[in-house]
């Protein structure tokens, strides 16, 4: 009798398994998974970093003998100081470099206003600064062949100064984070 109890138990367990497999095979129950995901990348977060990385005097299009300095420590604001413009019409052409250092996001520079404004600190009657614009310039992710661009401005002396004023050109831009193409 012991052997038949084991046989009946095995038969019942097998029947339950067969019924369970057959039931699962004929049922069409959709699996729904829901939720949200966030990358954490924002225009003000650590994942998005677009900044001035350089400023240099274009010596071919500038008066010779000028003294210059560049300060790009403020990220999206770059300052370039020029001294030595002495004659009316003397010019200094400045080339700023803007770089996208973001590994995962591309950037569109000044996407909304498309204009970069340069101001001359305390010397607007002596100097004129050319306007420059970006036509929604897109910068690729860091270390790509499209991760940087340049901006060229020209400073011109409008009238001479007895004190030999220097001029500091301050330029800032807006950058918008976009997904890579």
Task: Note down, in words, how this protein is organized.
The protein has 181 residues and is mainly β. Helices cover 14% and strands 36% of the residues. A 4-stranded antiparallel β-sheet has the order 1-4-11-8, with no helix packed on it. A hairpin with a 5-residue loop joins strand 2 (67-71) and strand 3.
Which secondary-structure class do the elements indicate?
A: mainly beta
**Taking all residues together, what is the mean pLDDT?**
76
In the sheet with the most strands, the strands line up as 1-4-11-8
Shape: rod-shaped
Number of strands: 13
Q: What is the H/E order?
A: HEEEEEEEEEEEEE
> Can you give the helix content as a percent range?
10-25%
Discrete helix count: 1
Oligomer category: single chain
List unreliable stretches of 5+ residues.
111-115
Radius of gyration based on Cα positions: 33 Å
The proportion of residues in beta strands is 35-45%
The end-to-end distance, rounded to whole angstroms, is: 75 Å
Q: How would a crystallographer describe the biggest sheet?
A: 4 strands, antiparallel
Gist of the model:
This protein is mostly beta strands. The chain has one helix spanning 2-26, and strands spanning 50-57, 67-71, 77-83, 91-100, 106-109, 115-116, 118-120, 127-129, 132-133, 138-139, 148-157, 167-172, 175-178.
Describe the structure using short key phrases:
181 residues; mainly beta; four-stranded antiparallel β-sheet; 1 helix; 14% helix
